[in-house]
Amino acid sequence: MQKKIIALAVAALASSAAFAQSNVTVYGTVDLGQAWVKSNDSAAGAQGQKNVGRLDNNSSNIGFRGTEDLGNGLKALFQFEAGINTDTNGGWGGGRDTYIGLTGGFGTFVAGNLTHPLRAMGSKVEILPGAAGFGTVNSITGAIGTTKTGADDRAQNALAYVSPKFGGFNATVAYVNGEVNPNGAGQGEARQWQVAGQYEDGPLYVGAGYHKVQNGSPVGTAGNVEADAAVWRLAATYSFPTNTKVTALYDNTKAETNVAGAYFKRAAYSLGVMQSFGQAAVGLEWAKSNKIKTEAGTVADSSANIWTLVGTYSLSKRTTAHARYSKLSNNAGADYRFYYNPVAAAAPAAAGRDYTGFMVGLRHSF
Question: Ranges for the Porin domain (predicted)?
């Protein structure tokens, strides 16, 4: 549900019926799916995962939110949200949107564990229920190979300001404290910044954002290696009177290390369409990553793509049955994987694997 996904758009939440009360609202989602997943052998011949059945937890969660009216149009607000492991009854997990802040005519200021504004854009264009489970397009648009860019994750130790809406437009500015020097003494703090703007009015949504990481630690490196990463993202959706929704996203990411000017970059994009027929809906989405480029040139066969077919049926306003089929295809030099609930047994040197999954599930929100 969008009210759980787009956590940084709390200015809109502050005007909702739940925030008009001074009490605490309890909410959540339980989503489980019976899945069958597999992967083929890698380009180097490493054995893949044969078809297995599993019960997937698709970002089930529970949350508490509320406000206090401080007078003169000013309100204090808070939210605590935790993941729940409904497939194993393993208890609560952390990492979801939790914050405290102030909201008023000036906009909204929050501090805590927050969704990146670029993540909110990605969730906005995702057609899978709750933007959760395997097969999401951020498997391609949110990663460079096995390395997640961070644009589709939440940020710890974050501060964010969300402006009021002006004719359908509002802006978000966020800063993420690094708090430590991740690569040892004398190295820089791993800070992050985000700035984004979005316009939403009736059937149209358009968003643009920039995500900057300073002194991060690239995956797969050792020693005092640091990377400055920059992510540009554009996203749009449009709903036609025929109950047809189309989506599009463009993501451009570049990371530069402090080792002899080394860098790697790639562009990725996605397209989607969802058609509703009363209580039922069917959709198809596709994403592709272009080849990775480095200071040495273009990496051969490093592109990948994913496509996912999804169907939903609303049993009530709160309960939805859903099914999906997804296939992620890597070229011989690429190693992209499902962003959520990946297929197991992805052995080292696994470039060139394809990942496939089928799932039927039930989603209930309260």
Answer: 7-332
The structural architecture, per CATH, of the domain 2-25+35-365 is Beta Barrel (2.40)
Q: DSSP of 197-251, one letter per residue?
A: EEEEETTEEEEEEEEEEEEE--TT--SS--EEEEEEEEEEEEE-TTSEEEEEEEE
pLDDT given for residue 185 in this prediction: 53
Kindly give, in sequence order, each residue whose CB lies less than 8 Å from that of residue 241, ignoring residues fewer than 6 positions away: none
Look up the pTM and report it.
Answer: 0.87
Domain ranges of the chain: 2-25+35-365
Strands 319-330 and 304-314: antiparallel
Q: Which amino acid makes up residue 162? A: V
* CB distance 178 to 159 below 8 Å: no
Cα 71 to Cα 198: distance, rounded to the nearest angstrom: 29
Specify the pLDDT at position 183: 57
Which residues partner with 144 through β-bridges? 147
pLDDT of the residue at 222: 38
Q: Report, as ranges of residue numbers, the positions in the chain whose pLDDT lies below 70.
A: 1-22, 181-188, 216-226, 258-260, 345-349
- DSSP-derived letter for residue 250 is E
Cβ atoms of 66 and 80 closer than 8 Å: no
Residue whose entry in the numeric block shows the structure tokens 């005092």: 224
Residue 34's CB: how many other CB atoms inside 10 A? Answer: 14
